[in-house]
């Protein structure tokens, strides 16, 4: 089948507005009478609040009010339900908001925050999640049993465990007894920030009639309404959430945000609109970041390479609040097996509270963590078994249609083709072909790879919907809620509509504002699900509209509906293209020459509903957690400087089984962006804490984010297209997938060449140098010798 | 960071004890003090301007008495505060020994600076903290000498 | 130095934009400690935004014509005025030919946008241990010229920077220019910086090398290793010896990695820094020696 729009590199529709500077963000929202909010945050990691003296702050000219937590003892949240709006009776981390100043100007608000005096009575602290598990560790949440949590999670009141996820399949002890080779390793990943360009910011207006209007820089409108309605007791239809353009999300703008707080502040300010904008520092210290992670893995293999037993324990350092991280803990648990069939597996994943910054989702949602562990286990096993790492993967890859995942889900036949992904990956990186020798003999080159698989981590009933309405000229307004924060999904969805109606793309409009009142519902724009779920909803809406159109046309053209077709914006009789009627004569109803009319304005509606997805069994983790699995792989060729520990990626390859590529340009942008984000987190990023739990690098001068000079010369991508019959044109999601494999592929490349283990992120120059020195000092000495003997330090440019 | 020091005062031990037991007297010796208030239980809150090179940051600090033992002339104070995006806390042990011609004043302070300031600039901070502590005790000494002569 | 700030606004201040140096000095005299001089503002504004300094008067010197000076005189050396930016220096051909270490430091400093605004003198006056500007200047033995209403004085850059955020500048004074002495044709100089995975340098190093039959003069200057830039005096002495230069270079590099005071901080550990001192010293010196 040939398509006009599907599969074409249509430039992203938001590009024009962003490049011309006309795109509107929440930051641009200024309302008459608006006040500015500024947070007073905790300077101690764990303490009772004894007294908050706001009298001096109130004396600053322009300050209207100072609000403290105990006046609003709400518990809010989506999954764990553990969050306060402002600290109520105690603070749980350095940066915990304890009060909010409302002022006529930002200057006044910023002056006043320094004048709020908070008296604390300090409590014992715990910063290490492993220590937090000890029975005599200080308890961070004393009333966990009162939290309204989702049924998918198991908090353990009386401990610091926010969620305990367990999974059991087969008999892992038996598996180890039968194993010929056993690998045991420990892994660590530090906290990292999303580093989106646009920081968290919200404008809220609590109206006198009880309606709350919200503008926010967030990924999704619906959860904000749901969280506010459930926790503040405001009826759903009185909460209107609007999201204009958003400067990046990466999971850090999903789940719980600041909206409920700012809404309350607006009410407290006498129903005046209020704006809260975090600074970059506050984003690093008072919002939420990706959790710290420990992985303890034991893996058993047969001599022939079969992976027969896997016992893993994950500990997530969730910080002071874990509302969303409990679901990361669940996802990291059930994705432990990656894309391999492992008959005997046991997983325990604990999401643990500590006195550090709260945590949340970040692109990949637990899968980068589980794959950092598993994909390195594969290479270490390959070495011990004497089997090539690619070959070992080939032996153990799941077979769609036959294999079960660790949750006991039998993969559908058209779930993807992981074998083919691996083959293409090996071909593109030139697996088996030695790298060119670097000019400087103290550098080495090596290739490494990692495979991965991911689907959306979602509740079993996550749904989506679309409304499609026609204007007089047969142009279309598509009302959808899927977020527009740089991924490009909306462009792909518009291509679907243009394709199906044979209309030019310019005739399709999706407003840039998402609005709970005006957009159709979608659960969330997370988990790389937007194209799949909203795409299906749109296809169903198109189908619905087409039915209405054909019904009218069949009367006008006096021809049965199934003899009609829609081509280039016209309804035609099949086989007689001259018997036709243009869409604009139908979509508002057809009017006969004498004025009689039939039909009426056409409105298409369509839904997507997850089917066959289930909750997972609380003890065994068995069930069907998701709606699709995208398989993929990353391979890299790197150069390591043995003297300094610097790593340069010479070539990166990403291969993904996307089912069907709707827009190759958008996929390429996701691949590039995901690769670089994976590289940045893999090599450099780390939020550093001191012994009192303070973030010591809450800014981009000391928290290093990848820069243009660090970008690899070559990143290429290929797709394998195994269409999934229930996806839009067979397509599956891509967004998050592109960063999962980068860090383990680099670690594997280093291990293959040097037999140096890098089980901790980041693989910074210093950390690599330390690992080299500790594990293979002779390599460093040899490199130094070559360096000293080297004659031509200055390269003559040709 | 641990600091310790001692000084000999010409005053009687009881006079020294009375002086340092009076929070408002001691707090007025803090260099860069901008304002302060004394609350119940000898808790003192203060705003202090601290100069580190050309940086002039304002710290809000509080101190409270953890232990006070008049019989043995020992006391323990806890100081904590925050400013320029960082925090600090300190435990200070004080002891007065009676000498033939006066009083020996011994102090031991364990100062912890948290946050970016502490980790970026620890080595330089040490010098500044020492300077502040020295100024504080010099002032105490001066005031005691003036009041008891 | 950036601690991160919750603030978006600046503390209140009065902005002055004098047209002459005399006018600027009078303002400084009048406001004393309450005033700060601003050229590019790249250092001052973030400091103010973070409430590390809150001057009530900011004196912008960008429009003072006599400070926009960039002039080389044979036998006397190079004068760089207070408002000369990194970008202007980068385009100055003589710098590339003669003061190569400074040229390389200027080129590697930060990014284009910052270099268009930042001045070399501002870079020195910040006295932040990780910056690039002071390192080659100390290697050349440069001096700063400081003026007040009643005095003109000169002091070596090495002494001017007293420690982190601490400089030898009194209220009422302004740094008007930097003077680099003229250097012999045979002298070589270079600069290296290690900042992979870091915005600031974990280590930067400048070398000045004059090794002829008649005269030997060597200076090795290191930054980002402790509270202020430092010379490796013992290592320099090794390079003054007679013998196989390659062997001397190795010895000097090892010596430098041992003799200097080096700290651990949020960017790097002491061990790693000492190791980098050894590697980068060897690399820089070998490159300079090879260069003919």
Detail the topology: elements first, then pairings.
The complex is a heterotrimer of chains A (798), B (149) and C (292).
Chain A lengths: L14 H5 L15 E7 L5 E7 L1 H4 L4 E6 L21 E2 L5 E7 L2 H8 L3 E6 L6 H4 L28 E9 L2 H7 L2 E9 L11 E6 L5 E5 L5 H11 L6 E5 L15 H10 L5 E4 L2 H6 L6 E10 L5 E13 L5 H10 L9 E10 L13 H19 L3 H8 L21 H12 L13 E12 L8 E8 L5 E4 L9 H13 L6 E2 L4 E2 L14 H28 L6 E4 L2 E4 L2 E7 L5 E4 L5 E5 L1 E7 L20 E12 L5 E11 L6 H20 L30 E7 L16 H4 L1 H13 L10 H11 L1 H13 L9
Parallel strand pairs in A: 1-12, 10-11, 14-15, 18-19, 28-29
Antiparallel strand pairs in A: 1-5, 2-4, 2-6, 3-5, 7-15, 8-13, 9-10, 9-12, 11-20, 13-14, 16-27, 17-18, 17-26, 21-22, 22-23, 24-25, 27-28
Helix pairs in contact in A: 10-17, 13-14, 15-17, 18-19
Chain B lengths: L1 E8 L3 H8 L2 H5 L5 E6 L5 E9 L2 E15 L4 E10 L2 E14 L2 E13 L1 H5 L1 H27 L1
Chain C lengths: L13 E3 L4 H11 L3 E4 L5 H6 L7 E4 L9 E4 L3 E5 L4 H5 L2 H6 L1 H9 L3 H6 L2 H7 L7 H6 L3 E6 L2 E6 H4 E3 L2 E2 L6 E7 L7 E7 L8 E9 L4 E8 L6 E2 L1 H8 L4 H15 L10 H21 L2
Parallel strand pairs in C: 1-3, 2-3
Antiparallel strand pairs in C: 4-5, 5-10, 6-7, 6-10, 8-9, 11-12, 12-13, 13-14
């Amino acid at each position: 089948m040939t398509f006009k729009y599907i599969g074409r590199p249509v430039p992203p529709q938001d590009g024009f507005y962003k490049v011309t500077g006309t795109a509107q963000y929440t930051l641009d929202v200024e309302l008459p009478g608006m006040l500015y909010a500024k947070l007073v945050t905790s300077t101690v990691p764990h303490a009772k609040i004894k007294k908050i003296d706001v009298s001096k702050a109130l004396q600053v000219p322009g300050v209207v009010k100072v609000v403290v937590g105990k006046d609003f003892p709400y518990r809010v949240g989506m999954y764990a339900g553990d969050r306060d709006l402002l600290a109520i009776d105690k603070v749980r981390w350095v940066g915990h908001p304890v009060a909010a100043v409302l002022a006529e100007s930002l200057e006044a608000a910023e002056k006043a925050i320094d004048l709020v005096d908070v008296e604390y009575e300090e409590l014992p602290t715990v910063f290490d999640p492993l220590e937090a598990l000890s029975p005599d560790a200080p308890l961070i949440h004393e009333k966990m049993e009162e939290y309204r949590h989702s049924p998918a999670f198991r908090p353990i009141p009386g401990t610091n465990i926010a969620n305990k996820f367990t999974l059991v399949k087969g008999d892992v002890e038996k598996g180890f007894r039968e194993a010929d080779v056993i690998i045991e390793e420990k892994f660590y990943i530090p906290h990292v920030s999303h580093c989106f360009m646009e920081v968290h910011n919200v404008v809220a207006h609590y109206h006198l009639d009880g309606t709350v209007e919200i503008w926010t820089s967030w990924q999704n409108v619906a959860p904000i309404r749901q969280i506010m309605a459930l926790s503040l007791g405001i009826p759903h239809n009185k909460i209107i959430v609007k999201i204009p353009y958003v400067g990046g999300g990466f999971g850090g703008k999903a789940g719980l945000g600041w909206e409920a707080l700012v809404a309350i502040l607006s009410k407290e300010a006498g129903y005046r609109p209020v704006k809260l904008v975090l600074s970059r520092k506050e984003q690093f210290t008072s919002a939420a970041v990706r959790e710290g992670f420990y992985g303890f893995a034991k893996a058993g293999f047969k001599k022939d390479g079969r992976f027969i037993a896997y016992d893993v324990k994950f500990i997530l350092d969730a910080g002071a609040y874990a509302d969303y991280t409990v679901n990361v803990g669940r996802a990291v648990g059930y994705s432990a097996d990656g894309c391999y069939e492992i008959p005997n597996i046991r997983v325990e994943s604990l999401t643990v509270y500590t006195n550090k910054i709260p945590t949340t989702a970040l692109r990949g949602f637990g899968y980068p963590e589980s794959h950092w562990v598993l994909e390195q286990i594969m290479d270490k096993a390959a070495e011990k078994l004497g089997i090539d790492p690619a070959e070992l993967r080939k032996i153990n890859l799941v077979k769609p249609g036959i294999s079960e995942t660790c949750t006991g889900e039998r993969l559908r036949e058209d779930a993807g083709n992981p074998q083919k992904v691996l083959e293409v990956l090996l071909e593109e990186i030139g697996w088996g072909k030695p790298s060119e020798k670097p000019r400087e003999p103290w550098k080495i080159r090596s290739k490494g790879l990692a495979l991965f698989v991911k689907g959306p981590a979602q509740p079993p009933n996550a749904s989506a919907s679309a409304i499609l309405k026609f204007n007089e000229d047969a142009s279309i307004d598509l009302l959808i809620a899927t977020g527009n924060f740089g991924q490009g999904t909306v462009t792909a969805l518009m291509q679907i509509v243009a394709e199906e109606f044979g209309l030019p793309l310019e005739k399709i409009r999706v407003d840039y504002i998402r609005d709970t009142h005006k957009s159709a519902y979608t659960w969330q724009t997370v988990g790389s699900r937007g194209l799949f779920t909203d795409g299906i909803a749109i296809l169903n809406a198109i189908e619905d509209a087409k039915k209405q159109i054909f019904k009218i046309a069949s009367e006008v053209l006096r021809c049965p509906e199934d003899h009609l077709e829609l081509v280039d914006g016209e309804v035609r009789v099949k086989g007689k293209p001259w018997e036709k009627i243009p869409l604009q004569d139908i979509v508002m109803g057809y009017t006969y020459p004498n004025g009689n009319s039939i039909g009426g304005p056409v409105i298409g509606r369509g839904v997507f509903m997850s089917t066959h997805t289930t909750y997972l069994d609380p003890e065994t983790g068995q069930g069907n957690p998701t709606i699709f699995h995208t398989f993929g792989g990353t391979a890299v060729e790197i150069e390591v400087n043995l003297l300094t520990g610097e790593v340069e990626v010479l070539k990166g390859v990403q291969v993904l089984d996307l089912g069907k590529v709707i827009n190759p340009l958008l996929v390429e942008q996701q691949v590039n962006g995901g690769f670089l984000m994976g590289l940045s987190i893999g090599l450099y990023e780390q939020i550093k804490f001191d012994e009192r739990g303070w973030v010591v690098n809450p800014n981009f001068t000391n928290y290093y984010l990848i820069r243009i000079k660090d970008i690899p010369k070559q990143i290429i991508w290929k797709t394998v297209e195994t269409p999934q019959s229930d996806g839009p044109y067979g397509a599956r999601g891509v967004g998050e997938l592109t960063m999962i494999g980068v860090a383990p592929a680099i670690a594997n490349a280093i291990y293959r060449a040097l037999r140096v283990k890098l089980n901790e992120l980041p693989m910074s120059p210093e950390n690599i140098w330390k690992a080299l020195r500790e594990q293979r000092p002779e390599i460093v000495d040899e490199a130094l010798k070559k360096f000293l003997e080297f004659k031509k330090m200055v390269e003559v440019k040709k | 960071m641990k600091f310790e020091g001692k000084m000999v005062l010409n005053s009687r031990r009881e006079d020294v004890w009375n002086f340092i037991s009076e929070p408002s007297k001691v707090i007025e010796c803090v260099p860069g003090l901008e304002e302060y208030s004394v609350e119940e239980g000898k808790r003192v809150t203060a705003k202090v301007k601290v100069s580190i090179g050309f940086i002039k940051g304002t710290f809000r600090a509080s101190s409270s008495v953890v232990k006070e033992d008049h019989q043995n002339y020992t006391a323990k104070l806890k100081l904590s505060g925050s400013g320029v995006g960082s925090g600090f806390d300190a435990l200070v042990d004080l002891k007065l020994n009676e000498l033939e011609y006066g009083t020996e004043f011994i102090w031991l302070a364990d100062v912890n600076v948290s946050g970016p300031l502490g980790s970026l600039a620890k080595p330089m901070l040490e010098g500044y903290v020492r300077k502040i502590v020295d100024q504080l005790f010099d002032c105490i000494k001066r005031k005691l000498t003036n009041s008891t002569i | 130095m950036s601690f991160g700030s919750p603030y978006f606004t600046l503390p209140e201040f009065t902005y002055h934009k004098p047209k002459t140096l005399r006018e600027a000095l009078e303002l400084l005299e009048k406001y004393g400690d309450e005033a700060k001089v601003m050229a590019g503002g790249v250092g001052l504004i973030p400091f103010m935004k973070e409430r590390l300094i809150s001057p009530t008067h900011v004196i912008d010197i960008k429009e003072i014509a006599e400070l926009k000076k960039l002039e080389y005189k044979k036998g006397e050396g190079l004068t760089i005025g207070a408002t000369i930016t990194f970008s202007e220096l980068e385009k100055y051909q003589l710098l590339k030919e003669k003061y190569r270490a400074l040229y390389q430091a200027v080129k590697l400093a930060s990014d284009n946008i910052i270099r268009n605004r930042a001045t070399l003198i501002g870079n020195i006056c910040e006295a932040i241990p990780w910056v690039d500007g002071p390192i080659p200047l100390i290697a050349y033995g440069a001096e700063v010229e400081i003026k007040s209403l009643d005095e003109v004085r000169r002091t070596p850059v090495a002494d001017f920077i007293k420690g982190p955020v601490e400089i030898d500048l009194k209220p009422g004074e302004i740094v008007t220019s930097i003077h680099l002495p003229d250097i012999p044709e045979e002298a070589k100089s270079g600069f290296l910086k290690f900042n992979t995975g870091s915005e600031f340098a974990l280590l930067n190093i400048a070398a000045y090398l004059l090794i002829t039959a008649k005269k030997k003069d060597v200076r090795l200057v290191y930054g980002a290793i402790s509270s202020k830039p430092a010379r490796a005096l013992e290592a320099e002495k090794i390079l003054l010896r007679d013998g196989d230069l390659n062997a001397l270079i190795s010895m000097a590099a090892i010596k430098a990695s041992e003799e200097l005071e080096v700290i651990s901080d949020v960017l790097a550990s002491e061990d790693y820094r000492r190791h980098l001192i050894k590697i980068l010293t060897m690399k820089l010196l070998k490159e300079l020696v090879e260069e003919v």
